[in-house]
Amino acid sequence: MLRRAVIFRLLTILYCVFALMPVYGKEQVAYKEILELPFIEAQKWMSYGDDPLQKIGVWPAAQHSEAHETALVFIHGGCWLNAFDYHHAKGMYSALASQGMDVYVISYRRTGDEGGGWPGTFNDITNALSHLSAYWQKTTIPMKKVLAGHSAGGHLALLAGQHNRAEMPTFDKVIGLAAITDVTTYAVGENSCQTATPAFFDGTPAEKADDYADATPHLTENTGMFVTLHGDQDNIVPVKHAYLSNATAMIVNGGGHFDWLHPETPSFRQFLTIIKEE
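^ thats the sequence. predicted structure below, dont judge the formating
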């Protein structure tokens, strides 16, 4: 209890830090800038598999609203590569927790990890979500559940939301931030993240057509729960990926790829608004 109280106090202090920061309307945030954000470490970790990478970190809310208790499950990006893990967005998780929501961050095996790539990476995500559902059943089921992911993590979030299985949580909203929604066209691009796509599938779209099709989100109806958020100046995932059939697309003018992870940006504020919407 003492440890939890200390964590809550630190998160409250962090909230004050973010609240007092002047809002400059930052755009085109560089990757280096998100690494420099203040952050709190996860209060606890839960394992959902035998591999050390198969774990879920919890950033608890600094303050709870009884009427609007929210659990945000987040899937980090990084081109599905094991060179990038959850660490780079810790400032974002901390900022979100300071806004009164419990943040659950999924660590998973990626390209370059044993068992990573397609479909192992996606299986990790669905297994993690099933673990969370069982955990909430034993503790407290959140009043509102949101699943979100950034970039390659946005791709995995949209795909997992589409394949919502009985043992997985039922989410009120699924949000893709700068999400890769068409892996087939993305795989033939020339930037560093695009060229990493065939390694994730262990083959090109021509060689692994069925796998690429299975890994592409296909929403059959517009339920209002799927939202794609994208900056029109994203030079890593082109803005055309925001226009996923039967999802609500919202475009931030001047927004870049990493803006979603920085609490001083219009993009982050748009993300926060969507989370808090009824």
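Confidence is low (pLDDT under 50) at residues 1-24.
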